[in-house]
């Protein structure tokens, strides 16, 4: 199959994917936060949205459009500003929601629908510079520019990112869902976690603003 890279390339890509997956980021913070506050289904819905974003990134790389964004500092700055603003909004929501893990919140209007969680996961992935730069600058390194099947191989590797990172992300969501029962028993602890997630999102927003396209 001409669209499948050599096994050595796949192994190298798998190692890079593992490093990306275990590196804390706003996407993983979102999965865990929603699993803690709204249950396993919400966490998996956010994760599905993020994986949908991976497909979009892959298509952009395969057709070469993403290279235009990297080449334009103005476009990259707009992208960073949008991502940082989105994360700050999520941080404000975490603080404003109060005791987000309280059982009554789960039954009221504070809970998000699966579609809303999916959209949130999609948005945070599309605006995540770590993922954007990985797909724009690092993914193409696994395919030769002179390879006539380069677009197909880029598409294959981009989609391979999903099953390679799925075991780790799914495990985090499941663990968070099981841990949520303990948090709901202590309002003081849950409030601390609210501020913790707000601080993490704010830190990532700052990191996005100071990131440089290379």
Explain what this protein looks like in three dimensions.
This protein has helices at 7-22, 26-38, 40-63, 66-71, 73-96, 103-107, 114-126, 129-138, 150-184, 187-210. By secondary structure, it is mostly helical. It is built from ten helices and no strands. Mean pLDDT is 78; it is low at 99-109. It is globular and about 60 Å long.
Summarize the structure.
By secondary structure, this protein is an all-alpha fold.
Give a topology summary:
Blueprint: H1 7-22, H2 26-38, H3 40-63, H4 66-71, H5 73-96, H6 103-107, H7 114-126, H8 129-138, H9 150-184, H10 187-210
Helix pairs in contact: 1-9, 2-3, 2-7, 2-9, 3-7, 3-8, 3-9, 5-10
Task: Kindly report how far apart the N and C termini lie.
Answer: 33 Å
Structural class: mainly alpha
Question: What is the H/E order?
Answer: HHHHHHHHHH
* Number of helical segments with 4 or more residues: 10
Shape: globular
Mean pLDDT across every amino acid position: 78
Strand content: under 5%
Q: Level of helix content? A: over 70%
User: What's the total number of strands?
Assistant: 0
Largest sheet: none
Radius of gyration, rounded?
Answer: 18 Å
What are the low-pLDDT stretches, counting only 5+ consecutive residues below 50? 99-109
């Amino acid at each position: 199959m001409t669209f499948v890279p050599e096994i050595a390339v796949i192994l190298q890509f798998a190692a890079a994917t593992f490093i990306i997956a275990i590196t804390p980021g706003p996407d993983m913070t979102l999965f865990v936060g929603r699993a803690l506050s709204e249950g396993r289904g919400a966490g998996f819905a956010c994760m599905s949205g993020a994986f949908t974003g991976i497909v979009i990134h892959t298509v952009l790389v395969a057709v070469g459009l993403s290279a235009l964004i990297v080449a334009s500092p103005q476009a990259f700055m707009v992208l960073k500003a949008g991502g940082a603003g989105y994360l700050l909004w999520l941080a404000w929501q975490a603080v404003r929601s109060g005791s987000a893990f309280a059982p009554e919140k789960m039954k009221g209007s504070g809970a998000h629908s699966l579609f809303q969680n999916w959209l949130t996961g999609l948005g945070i992935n599309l605006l995540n510079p770590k993922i954007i730069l990985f797909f724009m600058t690092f993914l193409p390194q696994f395919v030769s520019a002179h390879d006539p099947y380069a677009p197909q191989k880029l598409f294959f590797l981009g989609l391979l990112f999903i099953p390679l990172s799925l075991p780790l992300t799914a495990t985090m969501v499941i663990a968070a869902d099981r841990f949520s029962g303990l948090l709901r028993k202590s309002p003081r602890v849950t409030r601390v976690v609210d501020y913790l997630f707000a601080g993490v999102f704010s830190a990532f927003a700052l990191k996005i603003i100071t990131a440089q396209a290379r």
